[in-house]
Structure formats: structure tokens, C-alpha cells
Amino acid sequence: MLILKAGQLHRLFSTKTLPTLTLFTKDPCPLCDEAKEVLQPFRHRFVMQQVDISLPENRLWWDRYKWDIPVFHLNGRFLMKHRVDVALLEKMLQEAEMN
């Protein structure tokens, strides 16, 4: 179970915050929609943040990722692109949960 405390999601009976999975996307993005479906079973283990790279304020991300979306960062670090690598995601979430 998750609770919201001071603007952060926490696991019940834990003081640790959930890791942040950032999805760099744009509209339309069928691969992004597919990736979000693959992520559903993991949603209780991270906070999802979406960055629309087509917005003017996200020009840096547009320049970097316009040909590669979906792109995922975990806690601010590049994790994967194009498709969800379930094995890699599981491994990195376990590492984040241990820290």
C-alpha cells in the first residue's frame, strides 16, 4: 500500500520513497502507449513522471530523444529506450528498493 506524505509517495511501513521512472514521450506515440501497458504490473513500485518532449520548455529533450522515444530514466539516469526491457527494469527496481 502507498501513502502520500509531504508530496512524496511512500510504501506503508517504510520511510523510503519510491523511485521515479521518467518517460520521455510525445503525442502521438504508439510505442509509448505500448510501453505504458507493459509497465502496468510494476506501477506500485515507482512513481511515473512523463515529459512531453514536443513542448517548447523541453527542447533539450527533443534534441536528444526525438528519434528514440519512448526513453526511460530511473531516478534521473538513463535506463532504456524504444521498448520496455522487463528484465532490466526488474533488476534496477530491485537495486533501488535495496538502497
Descriptive account of the structure:
By secondary structure, this protein is an alpha+beta fold. The protein is built from three helices and six strands, in the order βββαβαββα. It has helices spanning 30-39, 59-65, 86-98; strands spanning 2-5, 8-11, 20-25, 47-52, 71-74, 77-81. The chain has a four-stranded mixed sheet, with helices on one face. The chain has a two-stranded antiparallel sheet with strand order 1-2. Helix 1 links the parallel strand 3 and strand 4 (47-52). The longest helix is centred in the last third of the chain and has 13 residues, at 86-98. The relative contact order is 0.20.
How is the secondary structure organized here?
Blueprint: E1 2-5, E2 8-11, E3 20-25, H1 30-39, E4 47-52, H2 59-65, E5 71-74, E6 77-81, H3 86-98
Parallel strand pairs: 3-4
Antiparallel strand pairs: 1-2, 3-5, 5-6
